[in-house]
Amino acid sequence: MASKRTLRQRAVEILTRLKRHYPDSTCALRYETPLQLLVATILSAQCTDERVNRVTPELFRRFPDAQALATAPREEIESLIHSTGFYRNKAKHIQGACQKILTDFGGELPRTMPELLTLPGVARKTANVVLAHAFGIHAGVTVDTHVKRLSRRLGLTEHEDPVRIEKDLMQLLPQADWENWSIRLIDHGRAICDARKPLCEQCFLADLCPTAALLQPARSKTKTQVSPQLT
Questions:
Q1: Distances (CA, A) of 205 to 58, 155, 169, 185, 201
Q2: Does 98 count as an annotated binding residue?
Q3: Is residue 46 domain-shared with residue 125, that is, in the same domain?
Q4: CATH number (domain holding residue 40)
Q5: Catalytic annotation, pick one of 125, 168, 177, 187
Q6: Together in a domain, 63 and 39
Q7: Can you give the pTM of this predicted structure?
Q8: Which residues does [4Fe-4S] cluster bind (predicted)?
């Protein structure tokens, strides 16, 4: 890999372009309170934000806070979130987190990474989303599947483990932009850098991307090797 200084310069330039092309990027999950964001983020595991946003209005209407969710019949929560997948585990985690918030944190969602990580169903990705979007606290870089894939394609990390990827990105990006990076890279992954067929020829990051440099010549070569049909 390139030197840390070179990587930092490239990462900051990528970030600058992402901000320019996705100026209105924001958290796609809909919520009114920090706790609702926590619940929505737990539900988003292995599920689209769009699907979560279809489920949460009724869930939050019936169980709007930690007290209501902690004491709700588990079966009712499972029924409401069934379409998000893994609904039994998600319901268990949501209730466990709300119960711990009531018993250990006075009913208020904690605002530190170590405290959030004590809640059932909460790992660094979920905690980063909640801290950044609910409280404006940049404690780390959210690494979902898009961020993992694109950060590797852009040559900014060689790791597969999300925690190690996060550490690499935290060293390359200004802390104030940690969530800017994640939210815009997610949008870029959806719009351009598809997992199977990245649109490198349309990508405004192609000149900064070692993967694009490998893919584009290969595609051009494939096109030129197509033999004309005999008539």
A1: 40, 12, 17, 11, 10
A2: no
A3: yes
A4: 1.10.340.30
A5: 125
A6: yes
A7: 0.88
A8: 193, 200, 203, 209
Catalytic residue among 19, 49, 92, 144: 144
Cα–Cα distance list, 58 to 32, 55, 97 (Å): 13, 6, 20
Q: How many domains in the chain?
A: 2
Digits of tens for pLDDT over the chain (231 positions)?
567 789 999 999 999 999 999 999 999 999 999 999 999 999 999 999 999 999 999 999 999 999 999 999 999 999 999 999 999 999 999 999 999 999 999 999 999 999 999 999 999 999 999 999 999 999 999 999 999 999 999 999 999 999 999 999 999 999 999 999 999 999 999 999 999 999 999 999 999 999 998 876 555 444 444 434 432
| 104 has catalytic annotation | no
Q: Does the annotation count 144 as an active-site position?
A: yes
**Which of the listed residues 157, 175, 191 is the one where a domain comes to its end?**
191
- The answer to whether 34 and 130 are in contact (CB under 8 A) is yes
| Calpha distance 197→61 (Å, rounded) | 40
- Is 27 known to sit in a ligand binding site? no
39 and 126 belong to one structural domain:
yes
Q: Is 209 annotated as a binding residue?
A: yes
Structural domain range at position 40: 34-135
Residue 60 covered by a domain: yes
Q: Is 47 annotated as a binding residue?
A: no
